[in-house]
Amino acid sequence: MEERRGMVVNTYPGRYSPTSDRPAPPHQQGMMRAFAAASLKDCAVLGPEIRRYFQKSFDREFLASVASRRDLWRILLPLPGIFAFVADRGDNELMIMNDRGPAWHETICNLLSLPVEERERCEIASSYTFTMACPAPSSPPGTLPTLQGIMEASTLDAAKVAADLGLRALILNFAHGYNCGGGFEHASGSQEEAIFRSSSLFLSLWPHRRKDDGPGVLKRGTWIGDFDELLPRKEPFYEHTECGGIYSPYVRLMASDAEVAVATVAAQDVTRSPPFRRELLREKIRTVLWMARENGHDAVVLGAFGCGYFSNPAEVVAETFQQLLATEFSGVFRLALFALLRDRNFPAFTKYFPLLDAKRLPSLLEGHTPAPKPYPE
Prior knowledge:
Elements (H helix, E strand, L loop, with lengths): L7 E5 L16 H13 L6 H9 L3 H6 L5 H6 L5 E7 L5 E3 L5 H11 L3 H7 L3 E3 L18 E6 L2 H10 L4 E7 L15 H8 L2 H5 L39 E8 L6 E8 L11 H17 L4 E4 L11 H13 L8 E6 L5 H5 L10 H6 L11
Parallel strand pairs: 5-10, 6-8, 6-9, 9-10
Antiparallel strand pairs: 1-2, 2-3, 4-7, 7-8
Helix pairs in contact: 1-2, 10-11
């Protein structure tokens, strides 16, 4: 394999815990020692638990046998395991990035290796620049019988259910309107970051990041720049306009290969820019539903939009969705599914929408069984 900046190598087998005292099997001893060498001699940025485990296999004779740090390529490349990031810093020096990378780095590398036609399809994105003064156009109600309800699931799990039913589903990405992907490369708490790590959305949005966003900005590590040549910048769509968003028509879910569309829209950041503005929320939600209608989707996967870090009130968010789905967007979709986990936002949504069983969705959509009543408080 070519030795170049940004090489991805197999490093550590997922079935062994970094904190376990179980020894690695013999065929992985060389890998373990190589990482001990890297962490001690090259000041690699390994997480503390990973570092301690690798150092248990430290072998001075092995270190003496490594003619140069570039020999680590040949030791690491053939071994099975999860992915870590190795950057060639020049002068025969290697930097092994920290242990927070496996999920997102593997996803990005898999995406960049897709066949050209499929990858180009996944890169398509359209920006809508709506504002309070010039919001999404009004539209008349539709005629479809609409099933509305809550599924106790993640956004991507609910999206797969909708896709498996043969629906043209659009999912709402609770976006960061300034930083593309939020902190997908260094944080792990938001819905958007989870979507970035588990789908092809990175291909659609990352080329459209702000002109001043990229390697080294905020907490982004310099490693992210290693993909710039393979995924060049395009017209920036960030930061979003007041009620704007981005439409990605072809987003592949990595775990299942299901395909959905994504509306990337940012809720008001009430934490940083109070007070909460109900009318702004309404127009942002209108943007989402308008995107879905305008692009011919018959299902939407929604949720507790902005009710986490951005501190939007869950009950007002749920009520606003309910009002819009009952008026302007009534009869537009066959399915309006709210993907929620049982957290503090769950009770607010159950006041407005029933809890649905995924197994019953086919019959409910066909109208053979009446929809259940709202979830009891």
